[in-house]
Amino acid sequence: MKSLLSARFAPALAAFALAAVLAGCGPEKPAPYVPPPPPPPPPPITLAPRLIEEASAWRGYMARANAISPDFQNGEQIQTSLRTAAAYEPKQFLRGAVAWAAIVALQDPTFVAELRKVAADPAARLAMRDQLIANPNMATILPGADSAAGLIMQALGNEGSRMVVNGRAVKQAAYTVQHSAWSKISVPDREGRLIAAKSLSATPMLGDAADVMLLQQASTGPAAATPLGLTPAAAPPPWSPIVVRGLTLAALAAIGEGGDANFDAITTLSAEPNAAYCLNMAKLNLYQCLAVSKPQYEDIFCLGQHILIDTGACMVKWTGATMPAEPPPPPQLVRAPPKKTSITEGPRKPQKPPVRR
Question: Is pLDDT above 50 for 325?
Fold first, then answer.
């Protein structure tokens, strides 16, 4: 009986088995979709800490120099002011000015936003880095460059103008102070103070710790909302080389390529020969002035003209700004001419008042 059942159902079982085998040989189910990993985030806005330090040192020097008062009371005050104003090294001064210009440009939201788009593409970012370092003028065609340049011109130009105006007041004091006897006394140790001026001109400046922290925050871009006291104002091209180099350094920082890894390349941006020549001539004229200056009031002249005015004028030229207008001359006292008398008659006698009758 059992064999009968097996024989009866054998064809059906074979067909079922064949169907199962054929089903197993059918197309495989598609694998679930796995999206590709997201691209790496762009590098943050980066400016080398050493450049931030030099920007702070530059700002500190400008604050001290512009705080010099023309109200001199004695020779020691003159010599202290002279040492304060002489204490900058031209190359570092220029690096600090360009670094400060870059930090200022990084406050422009349009300029930074467009560059952050480039930073997100590694290939485009590296290509732009190489192009900016090889040709800084490329920064002039970047979106938002006109408004970022306007901030740089405002920041550097205002400081330079303030220095020129203060220098003129100090220079004028060299004349007005001469009514005081002490101003005509010879400067003690004239050779020593010339050596000191040259030594201070070769000594690196240091930034203030609190100001370095402020600029570190500002260097991360406009999102930090760092209060720098700037008013947005676009400036159409062409721009001076220093403004262009500040834009270039800011662009490198905005795409994340302004850090220590590229420090040697980006520091060449501050090597602008005309600007360096202007500062070096200011120093040379200062040394020559101090070499021949003898009384105290002549040192005031050297301070006002060859440190404050000359250095400030260099900065005004860097930005392409206009020199501050000269102040009006002080009013001159006009004395009435003496009354002429007749040679034959001699001096006239005063008339007597009429006698009332």
Answer: yes
pLDDT for 204 beyond 60? yes
SS3 call for 228? coil
The rounded distance, in Å, linking the Cα atoms of 157 and 179 is 35
User: Which pTM value belongs to this model?
Assistant: 0.81
Residues 76-96: tens digit of each pLDDT: 999 999 999 999 999 999 999
- pLDDT for position 117: 94
- The answer to whether 204 touches 92, Cβ cutoff 8 Å, is yes
Token pair, residue 60, equals 């500190």
Question: 3-class SS at 80?
Answer: helix
Altogether, the residues listed in the chain come to a count of: 357
Burial code of 247-276, b = ≥16 C-beta within 10 A, e = fewer? bbbbbbbbbbbbbeeeeeebbebbebeebb
- By three-state DSSP, how is residue 351 classified? coil
**Contact in structure between 44 and 256 (CB atoms under 8 Å):** yes
**What are the tokens at 308?**
């404050």
Q: What is the pLDDT of residue 42?
A: 85
Are 256 and 45 in contact by the 8 Å Cβ rule? The answer is: yes
CA distances to 273, 333, 347, 353 from 350, in Å: 74, 28, 9, 9
Distance (Å, rounded) from C-alpha 58 to C-alpha 56?
Answer: 5
High-pLDDT (> 70) share of the chain, %: 84
How far apart are alpha carbons 21 and 43 in whole angstroms? 56
**Partners of 258 in the β-ladder:** 47
Q: Where are the alpha helices (DSSP H) in 67-185?
A: 75-86, 90-105, 109-119, 122-134, 145-176
Mean pLDDT, range 136-153, rounded to an integer: 95
Q: How far apart are CA 199 and CA 191, in angstroms?
A: 12
